[in-house]
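STRUCTURE REQUEST FORM
Protein name: Aldehyde dehydrogenase
Source organism: Roseococcus suduntuyensis
Requested output: structure tokens
Priority: standard
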Amino acid sequence: MLRQLAFALMLGGGLALAPHVIAQTSLDQATQPTEEPSILPAGEGQEEVFYACTACHSTAIIRRSRFSEARWDELMTWMTEVHGMAPLEGDERRLIVTYLAQHFGPAQTRPGARNPFLN
Ligand code: HEC
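Status: completed
Returned output:
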């Protein structure tokens, strides 16, 4: 009898604790570590790209991409027309597209980047 009671208390205690543990780690914290501009390669346009692009998504989607300058330019139009990004024009557009093509161009391996499938 005493043993059953102890077991029930343990079980109850465990369940009561669970919501507390869940509340402590919000899904956001667990899945979206805070990014800073330095996550992008240093260079002219780094901050502009960071702040213009992270309003809607993290930089991961940019960092995994490899596009030509023309394709990056088209993508800026697509982002505005389809996804509602504020139109990028003039010098700012040139700065951003040049930066993207320079650092995330086709067949480019950034310094220090390693192919995980070859290691
Ligand atoms: C207004 C919101 C918004 C802003 C601002 C924005 N994007 Fe996007 N972007 C999106 C959405 C929505 C998608 C589609 C996500 C998906 O398909 O999962 C996307 C997708 C992408 C993709 C993937 C395209 C593909 O075909 O693989 C790239 C690359 C990208 N964005 C780059 C950028 C860059 C660079 C900037 C800054 C100049 C930017 N985005 C700013 C909303 C935005």
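Reviewer notes: The chain has two domains: 2-31, 37-103. The mean pLDDT is 81.
Form closed.
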